[in-house]
Amino acid sequence: MRSYPRIEPAQLDPAAPFWAPRFGDHYFQVQNPVAERSALFVEGPDLVSKMGALPSGSCLRIGETGFGCGLTCLVVLEAFLKHAPPNTRLQWISAELHPLLPDDLSRMHHALELSESLHPFAAELRAHWPPPIAGGHRRHLAGGRLVLDLHWGDGAAVFEGLDGRIDAWCLDGFAPNRNPELWQDSLYHAMSRLSVPGATVATFTAATVVREGLQAAGFQVSREPGVFGKRHRLQAQWPGEWHPHQPQRTATVVGAGLAGAFVARGLANRGYTVTVLEADSPAAGASGNPQGITYTKLAIDADPLSRWQWLGLHQLASVYGADHLAPYWHPTGVLLESINPATELQHAKLWHALHAPSDSLCLVDRIEATSQAGYPVAAGGLILKPAGWLEPSRIVLALLDHPRIECVTSTRVQAIKPLTQGYRWRGERPDGPCQGITDQVILANAHAIPELAPVDIPLKPIRGQVTFLSGSPMLRMALCGRGYLAPAQDNGIATCGATYQNLSTDCTPTDEDDSTNLLELNSLLESSGGDALQIVGHRASVRAATPDYGAVAGLLLDQTRLSTSDWALLRHTRAKRYPSAHHSGWAALGGLGSRGTLTAPGLAELVISALTGEVLPQSRHLVEAVAPERFALKALAQDGN
């Protein structure tokens, strides 16, 4: 059984906020640390010249070991905002094995002599600080100019598991003789794999073991004069001439549900002109429900799908708390009720397996659950504190409300054809045929994705019906068991549901499904708490799911690029993903099932990064679990064709 990785937070000396007792070392030069960071990591490798050379819409990608309190990132960000063109962004990819706890982060920031220009960015970082949960945590800061990927885990393992290209490296962390586990050959070889030609490396150390490790990995290394009292430091460069990443300009998203809206908004925020083509109207499908419970059901085994959900749970506040979405997000927490002895045992095991901080997850009995929920419930269970409920249809409309997004409704796309540069789509509108050309195209049209995809993606439709109720208990949090009950909206109407009917696309509501929803609702409340409820409406829609219930997210396989030797290799290795034969601008996001409100934001970022040249936000292990071609490659390995 795979275990959920455990992260041990950093420990600070109560009397010295920059001192780490675990390593017997300071986080940075105590005297004038801001100037030291600038001299080492901005001026030393001449990052300003790279920043100034970025074309509009491009991204400078910097990898770092040892995030600490984020001081190096903040100093580089300040230089970036000063020297880079306006419509560019900085992607900062950092690995930290022992992240600071929020109080320690705040204490360290307040002890630093930050410039007035850095104060708001430091405050924003603190407001979006991830909990000590292993894996990748993406945050968008500084008005979208900073794409911050914080990976809590071992530095070498993190960068060994990431895919993408990096323009510059900041090797920080504690000194090699104090933290030898970080400064390993595996780290340097991972850096060489990720580096673009001309990528620079800057570090405070001049240790021989670091110099020899970088040289053995292929870097050209020089010893330079040190700064602020240090005699020497190392700089290095990957062979070749550096050129900035050249971005695309236009994208077409097929489908205006939650998945398509998150992709469209993310691309528009990065400077794209985005057209969204929708066969009906925005949020016409499963994303059109007035309420959606945003929570996770995890396996005790830390499989990739559970890891995606667990990480997704801890980005909800950052994503849905954004100004344009916050009015439609209600972070009430969610009670997963232990509705029978088997579920009670499973919840207890899961609570122990997750090593979760108390502000993420707690195990409660029925009395405490009733107190937290504000109404007598049938059982105790697990409370997911970052979870809640949202208004999906309003979230979709808010995401699409952007000056660089045009949503074209009543347009059914029928075919997509790759061109020498870009893609041509053809479709049908009420007034006749239509077509267009775009740099990139993303399929986000739920169970209709297979009709347009160039590779087999076995998505199946699943019908679900929700029931709208008046007279609902005044719940303070959502309840989930076999079904769910959301707290009432401002209009007094609450939603319960949802039924599950495999392979059905019939969206006609039925009284039978309403009865099923009420039966499941009553199992969540003490006695007959649901007897006073009145049905005032219902809605049926269709979700899409894959055979393994994992999502589909990423670039699509171009089978015309596969040679005979490629096919033989794929049969032999049983690969789940084959990036060397991906379309550069044709992607898909779908198969989110009943967890779309939870996983859509993170999976959309995966798709966006693949399209825009950013380093992917999660490890290869998690990316492979949602690779669109995994089903086609599995079939290839099984039948030998």
Structure, briefly:
This protein is of the alpha/beta class and 641 residues long.
Description of the molecule:
The protein has 641 residues and is an alpha/beta fold. Helices cover 29% and strands 26% of the residues. It is built from 19 helices and 31 strands. The strands form six sheets. Strands 15, 16, 17, 24, 25, 26, 27, 28 and 29 form a nine-stranded mixed sheet that branches. It has an eight-stranded mixed sheet with strand order 5-6-4-3-7-8-10-9. It is globular. The mean pLDDT is 94.
- In the predicted model, the low-confidence regions spanning at least 5 consecutive residues are none
Number of strands: 31
Q: Give the helix proportion (percent range).
A: 25-40%
Gyration radius, in Å? 25 Å
For the biggest sheet, the summary is:
9 strands, mixed
Features:
single chain; 641 residues; alpha/beta; nine-stranded mixed sheet; eight-stranded mixed sheet; 19 helices; 31 strands; 29% helix; globular
List the helices and strands and how they pair.
Elements: E1 19-20, E2 25-26, H1 33-43, H2 47-52, E3 59-65, H3 71-83, E4 89-96, H4 102-111, H5 119-127, E5 135-141, E6 146-152, H6 155-160, E7 166-171, H7 185-194, E8 195-203, H8 208-216, E9 220-225, E10 232-237, E11 250-254, H9 258-269, E12 273-277, E13 292-294, H10 304-313, H11 316-320, E14 329-330, E15 334-337, H12 341-354, E16 361-364, H13 366-373, E17 381-384, E18 388-390, H14 392-400, E19 405-408, E20 412-418, E21 423-429, E22 432-438, E23 440-443, E24 460-470, E25 478-480, E26 484-485, E27 494-497, E28 501-502, H15 511-522, E29 534-545, E30 552-557, H16 564-573, E31 582-590, H17 596-612, H18 620-625, H19 630-639
Parallel strand pairs: 3-4, 3-7, 4-6, 7-8, 11-12, 11-23, 12-19, 15-25, 23-31
Antiparallel strand pairs: 1-2, 5-6, 8-10, 9-10, 13-18, 14-18, 15-17, 16-17, 20-21, 21-22, 24-27, 24-28, 24-29, 25-26, 26-27, 30-31
